[in-house]
Amino acid sequence: MTNQKREKSVADSVSKDKLRVWVRLLQTTRFIEAELRTRFRQHNNTTLARADVVAVLARFPAGLSMSALSAQLLITNGNITHVVEKLAADGLVERRDDSDDKRSIRVVLTRKGLAEFHAIAPLHEAWIAEILSDLSTRDATTLLALLAKANLRKPA
User: Fold this and answer.
1) Whole-number percent of the chain with pLDDT over 70
2) In the chain, how long is the greatest CA-to-CA distance?
3) How far apart are CA 10 and CA 14, in angstroms?
4) What is the pLDDT of residue 11?
5) Quick one: pLDDT at residue 154?
């Protein structure tokens, strides 16, 4: 085998390994999300999307615009609108005029929403710890460091 063929074979192997990493990350994410959806539905009669919105808003007491909320959740404005409407109807969030941008609405967690967050956050944390219980603290630290090496810039 020539050097050129050997180098191509090694490059193909590395490329396939990275593809396998992507597939494993996707499988892991989908498994965890499915498990959390089930647990939120069974234990809290809520959805993962609602819990995610409440959790994000708990970190931003002044609230967020719909665009900023969508960006935090990595989903489109259209998808978040429906969730926010239901949360508002249930009294967990309020929509307020944005003092910085009169064309924009800020979504703010209500006291009831904050109470909801404090009820579900410990459960969520415990469920994640249980789901990932086969990872030692060292494994988790190593995995975080490895994932930080991934190039997370958006493609041009």
Assistant:
1) 87
2) 70
3) 6
4) 55
5) 60
Tokens of 78: 């259209």
**Topology of domain 18-134, CATH:** Arc Repressor Mutant, subunit A (1.10.10)
134: DSSP letter: T
Give the position of tokens 């999307």: 49
33 and 74 Cβ atoms separated by less than 8 Å: no
Rounded to whole angstroms, the Cα distance separating 123 from 126 reads 5
Entry pTM: 0.79
Cα separation, 147 vs 67, in Å, equals 26
Q: How far is CA 44 from CA 47, 110, 118, 125, in A?
A: 8, 18, 12, 14
pLDDT tens column, 83-116: 999 999 999 999 998 777 777 889 999 999 999 9
Amino acid at 52: D
